[in-house]
Amino acid sequence: MFEGLKGKRILVTGASSGIGACIADLLGSYGAFVGVHYRNDKKGALGVVSKINKRGGKAEAFQGDLLLSSVGANLLKSFTDVFGGIDVLVNNAGGIYGPKHFLELDEESWDNTFTLNAKAPFFLAKEAFSVMKEQGGGKIINISSISAKYGGSPQTLHYGAAKAAVDSITVGLARAGAQYNILVNSVRGGFVDTPAHKKMGRVNLEDRIKLIPLKRAGQPIDIARMVLFLASEAGDYITGEIFTVAGGD
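and the corresponding structure tokens:
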């Protein structure tokens, strides 16, 4: 089912660690040509690239700060210059700026969170859409969050709102892309065990995990496998959908 991924040109944003690194590595293991995007963690990105290349795959790292409006177009151009086109864009890069109670939330944290999680994915998708339209099709997979379903917590309301925007963008782009064979879907990840939680200052995660029906945190591979499914021929008749991978949450 996944053999058709061999030679497919796939750009994964935010792929130097965590979920993005796992997605890039898994796709690369099936022979995809992978662009590993990163912002600051060059070492992590090169590690992912090296792992893919050592297995006989093909990967290259691409740097860019997606908070800057010019980066999306430049990133897409850099990728297509190297690989000659793009078959799949995985909009994985995301994060929360200023996780604090919404009564104390500052405008800069709101703007940065929306830029990284909604604005940047849209404009990257826009650039990819243009290329895919000319080449006869492609796939865009947006990594969303269970926060869009619940509206986030009082400390992450702006993140939940941004991910809800991504889901809306997914549906709109899917409708626009259908006539060009451009398929667009979201993967709404649940509570996933990554270093991001500690960076946010979350110490006790057990209470959150107890709320998950499967009673365990997700792992990056859980999200990566859904992306693999959608990127492969198994996802060739699926568009405009939001897939929740959250242990029943």
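(Above: one complete record from the training split.) The chain has a mean pLDDT of 95.
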